[in-house]
Amino acid sequence: MENVFDYEDIQLIPAKCVVNSRSECDSTVSFGGYTFKLPVVPANMQTIIDEEVALSLAEGGYFYVMHRFEPEKRLAFIKDMQSRGLFASISVGVKREEYDFIQQLAAEHLTPEFITIDIAHGHSNAVIEMIQYIKKHLPQTFVIAGNVGTPEAVRELEHAGADATKVGIGPGKVCITKIKTGFGTGGWQLAALRWCAKAASKPIIADGGIRTHGDIAKSIRFGASMIMIGSLFAGHEESPGETIEKDGKLYKEYFGSASEFQKGEKKNVEGKKMHVEHKGALKDTLEEMEQDLQSAISYAGGSKLEAIRNVDYAIVKNSIFNGDKVY
Ligand SMILES: NC(=O)C1=CN([C@@H]2O[C@H](COP(=O)(O)OP(=O)(O)OC[C@H]3O[C@@H](n4cnc5c(N)ncnc54)[C@H](OP(=O)(O)O)[C@@H]3O)[C@@H](O)[C@H]2O)C=CC1
Ligand SMILES: Nc1nc2c(ncn2[C@@H]2O[C@H](COP(=O)(O)O)[C@@H](O)[C@H]2O)c(=O)[nH]1
């Protein structure tokens, strides 16, 4: 791979401003037949989202993806969201019981608007078969498949019927895949995104490695339609992770979906737990993200998100760990 870089190695180059105020810039995005306030979605992880957070995001005009780690709650969740006139967006895995679940949804004529197939190594027959199964039984559902890190994988999943693919293997803040297996896009996630986006004919979700709000604009520049974020969304009042107090300061737990804390056992562990500083209300972070993105659009010389896609950029340095500690 040539031209390998990550978020911290890139600066976008400003173009002449065409607005008189940043408030004129429109950060909304069309995705899966809906328009959302931001091209950003909190990660489908158990310390990031629960039913309450999902509800407030959908009501507020934001995209969300519910996690898949309490499978018994999914049916009621879909019914509840749809009875409120909101979209239902859930996650599934690829094990046998997930096929039964899809069949049950079809039998009950319950069609979630979005289903995300959430697997560590998404370039696999298991995911291809699940895409095909969902498309056969729930043809109206918008299927997001992942995670992948190569153009071949994007093409294969799209060809199988995925409506969007999710790119990012190992760049996450609580990820240890890169250390335990030696594989992934950790340290070069932004370049991997660009590589995958060039092959994509459908939307791409950039997943993992976002450390600053500026990284959202950089993801857009390199081909993302939507950006999935975990660590920046951990630590809010509403975040489901446990709150702890240390030396008079409040923290919230954030653990990986492949960590022993999620799995309840030490088998194939590829995630860790950390504590992030308490950050206040989620809505304040979303508002700040919107303002920062509006500002980014103005620096891109436009008034809509698309303006960011065409800006020039400079590669400023190289680093392999994206600012993270190894453990
Ligand atoms: N984005 C990322 O970088 C990563 C994300 N994760 C997250 O962790 C959670 C758990 O993921 P995952 O372990 O895939 O889910 P599951 O534990 O549900 O595993 C899904 C299925 O895929 C099999 N499987 C998992 N990894 C591999 C592999 N490398 N090669 C072949 N088969 C495999 C599993 O079997 P078996 O367990 O027997 O192998 C199981 O049958 C997900 O939420 C995922 O998003 C995890 C790691 C990386
Ligand atoms: N390798 C692992 N990746 C994981 C795990 N749990 C979640 N994830 C991925 O991380 C992103 C969030 O990244 P962040 O940098 O924004 O914090 C999430 O969406 C998953 O794709 C895990 O246990 N191991």
From TrEMBL:
<dbReference type="Pfam" id="PF00478">
    <property type="entry name" value="IMPDH"/>
</dbReference>
<keyword id="KW-0521">NADP</keyword>
<feature type="active site" description="Thioimidate intermediate">
    <location>
        <position position="175"/>
    </location>
</feature>
<protein>
    <recommendedName>
        <fullName>GMP reductase</fullName>
        <ecNumber>1.7.1.7</ecNumber>
    </recommendedName>
</protein>
<dbReference type="InterPro" id="IPR005994">
    <property type="entry name" value="GuaC_type_2"/>
</dbReference>
<dbReference type="InterPro" id="IPR015875">
    <property type="entry name" value="IMP_DH/GMP_Rdtase_CS"/>
</dbReference>
<comment type="similarity">
    <text>Belongs to the IMPDH/GMPR family. GuaC type 2 subfamily.</text>
</comment>
<dbReference type="InterPro" id="IPR013785">
    <property type="entry name" value="Aldolase_TIM"/>
</dbReference>
<feature type="binding site">
    <location>
        <begin position="204"/>
        <end position="227"/>
    </location>
    <ligand>
        <name>NADP(+)</name>
    </ligand>
</feature>
<dbReference type="InterPro" id="IPR001093">
    <property type="entry name" value="IMP_DH_GMPRt"/>
</dbReference>
<feature type="domain" description="IMP dehydrogenase/GMP reductase">
    <location>
        <begin position="6"/>
        <end position="310"/>
    </location>
</feature>
<dbReference type="GO" id="GO:0003920">
    <property type="term" value="F:GMP reductase activity"/>
</dbReference>
<keyword id="KW-0560">Oxidoreductase</keyword>
<dbReference type="InterPro" id="IPR050139">
    <property type="entry name" value="GMP_reductase"/>
</dbReference>
<comment type="function">
    <text>Catalyzes the irreversible NADPH-dependent deamination of GMP to IMP. It functions in the conversion of nucleobase, nucleoside and nucleotide derivatives of G to A nucleotides, and in maintaining the intracellular balance of A and G nucleotides.</text>
</comment>
